[in-house]
TrEMBL record:
Matches recorded under InterPro entries: ArsR-like_HTH, AsnC-type_HTH_dom, Dimeric_a/b-barrel, Tscrpt_reg_AsnC-like, Tscrpt_reg_AsnC/Lrp_C, Tscrpt_reg_HTH_AsnC-type_CS, WH-like_DNA-bd_sf, WH_DNA-bd_sf
GO MF assignments: sequence-specific DNA binding
HTH asnC-type domain: residues covered: 5-66
Transmembrane feature ranges: none
Name of this chain's protein: Lrp/AsnC family transcriptional regulator
Origin organism lineage: Bacteria, Pseudomonadati, Pseudomonadota, Alphaproteobacteria, Rhodobacterales
Highest taxon above the source species: Bacteria
Signal peptide: none
Swiss-Prot/TrEMBL GO biological process terms: regulation of DNA-templated transcription; response to amino acid
């Protein structure tokens, strides 16, 4: 379900995505409004679920998490019990930044961030010891060409 947004809402969202630490006064100035209407719109968009928790983006390289793997998983298991165990396993692993269920030949794709190939192997060994998987293919990202958390709000 999508929420109806007008141009001012979109401008506010773009500013918040660019820098959520800005004051309401600064956002209002950037979007051509005043503080109170901006505050009211932000509050309404939070209540509607358009705006989620405010967080901080960390630099993985600065934290020593220099290896990014995309892990392609095929399974022959499709029962609810297996899926629940698999999803619980993924949620419990802090190395898994993203997990998606796919249509097509690959069932799941994971984005995994670790220190190096050895750390990935530790993750892989733990994963396959916790849940039965038919096939796992790991692809090492050689270079991050584009990264953003900003959604297009046009």
């Amino acid at each position: 379900m999508s929420v109806r947004l007008d141009d001012l809402d979109r401008k506010i969202l773009a500013e918040l995505q660019r820098d959520a630490t800005q004051s309401l006064d600064d956002i209002a100035k950037e979007v051509g409004s005043s503080k109170t209407p901006v505050w009211n719109r932000v509050r309404k968009m939070r209540e509607a679920g358009v705006i989620g928790p405010t967080t901080v983006l960390l630099d993985p390289d600065a934290l020593g998490l220099e290896a990014c793997f995309f892990v392609l998983i095929r399974t022959s298991e499709h029962e609810a019990e297996w899926q629940q165990k698999f999803l619980a396993t993924l949620r419990a692993r802090p190395e898994v930044l993203e997990a998606h269920r796919l249509a097509g030949e690959i069932d799941y794709i994971l984005k995994v961030r670790v220190e190096n190939a050895r750390a990935y192997d530790v993750f892989y060994q733990a994963l396959i010891s916790e849940v039965r998987i038919f096939n796992v293919t790991a692809l090492l990202s050689m270079e991050e060409i584009k990264f953003t958390t900003q959604l297009p709000v046009k």
